[in-house]
């Protein structure tokens, strides 16, 4: 910030004392009135009943992980009186949990286009169950269209501003106690029609929507940020945004890690760690899984801008991961990108590496498994290795760690690099080699009981509810820029916990 003016806000000992959004907003507005400057938020936990509305030429600076802005639990009810376009008040059937100064989101069905009307406002006055809004409505909210209101809002937000910095703080959306709000309207950070934004060393977590979402914003830089456990997208460069720079971020446990929306151009994303698919999430609809798939989420967010080559059930899907395999997956937003990526997969030029925990020790510890893979005649749900029929399959592997002592059954942490991409390839090859993947219910082999195994470890292995298989690396030639791009994500928390236990017992 060129402007050297600064002011502190905090729970105590600050120039503005307070522990909620009102104190922080007062600091922002004060600096904005003076032309800009830095608002330093001292260590503490700040409870929010409304968004912090950002201004031009402002730097929001926290004290690292010691500064936490957390959204309060939301309240929700329905409207009891129709509210029309340009009315400035609403009447609630139940006002419990709603107060003057609270941020709210109004939603109602929109039969004209089959979607929803959504508007964010602030409550500025009340008379019993009737509340006045800071701005008139710009859409109709009628009771027969299931008009609802909830205390939902982004934590930090700005529209039509430039020259903004956000640094060194934690934003917590309190996901478990809040309703969902689509990332086109909010997130821990939500920006629209802004320019010249720098976000660094910020953790956005537990929001029931996106972590950081910017729509029609230009020259946005997001660097060294952590976006975790958000219901939708970790980072969401939105439609029409130009020149985003996304570097050295860690994105984990989000529905989708990094999502480039339609019309995002001339940007760069590099050295980010992205966890796109959690275990338990089915990639596309199929028998027994018609809802709550990755495709369902993509259709909702892409609004029709996905490749059509995969058909109605698989729009945008170039490849897949098994339901209980976590890790990285690439999706095509148009047919040209889909064709380009498919050619790379067919030529086996995609860089795909997996980590797995297997029973026993691989012999040799590094090598290549070559076979055919075909559907089993004994069980049509299973695949099997064959040397006479099926599709050729090549798996390159190397042992990373071996865990073995009197408290541990012999286990090996391995890396597998795919030379081909067949159904269940790594699982089939490891089972065929006599080293099935830990937790694999389809390709497991009967393992002997270990009398001296550590009790806690034994319980962790017995209770693992997925195969220990993680797609950690994905690299390809970008269809538009023609540049090599590589993404890497570490083991998910459930798998890492087991590895840490093994390492501790191996000491």
Describe the structure.
By secondary structure, the chain is mainly beta. The protein has four domains: 6-72 and 155-274, Single-stranded right-handed beta-helix, Pectin lyase-like (Pectate Lyase C-like), CATH 2.160.20.10; 76-150, Elongation Factor Tu (Ef-tu), domain 3 (Beta Barrel); 283-340, no CATH class; 352-471 and 497-506, 2-Layer Sandwich (Pseudouridine synthase), CATH 3.30.2350. It is built from six helices and 34 strands. Strands 1, 2, 3, 4, 6, 7, 15, 17, 19, 20, 22, 23, 25 and 26 form a 14-stranded parallel sheet that branches. Strands 27, 28, 29, 30, 31, 32, 33 and 34 form an eight-stranded mixed sheet that branches. The chain has a six-stranded parallel sheet with strand order 5-14-16-18-21-24.
CATH superfamily of the largest domain: Single-stranded right-handed beta-helix, Pectin lyase-like
Q: Give the CATH class of the largest domain.
A: Mainly Beta
Provide the helix percentage. 10-25%
* Strand residue percentage: 35-45%
Please work out how many helical segments DSSP would assign: 6
Query: What is the assembly state of the chains in this entry?
Result: single chain
Structural class: mainly beta
**What name does the CATH topology of the largest domain carry?**
Pectate Lyase C-like
Using only C-alpha atoms, the radius of gyration works out to: 26 Å
CATH architecture of the largest domain: 3 Solenoid
Distance linking N and C termini:
50 Å
Poorly predicted residue ranges = none
**Number of spatially distinct domains:** 4
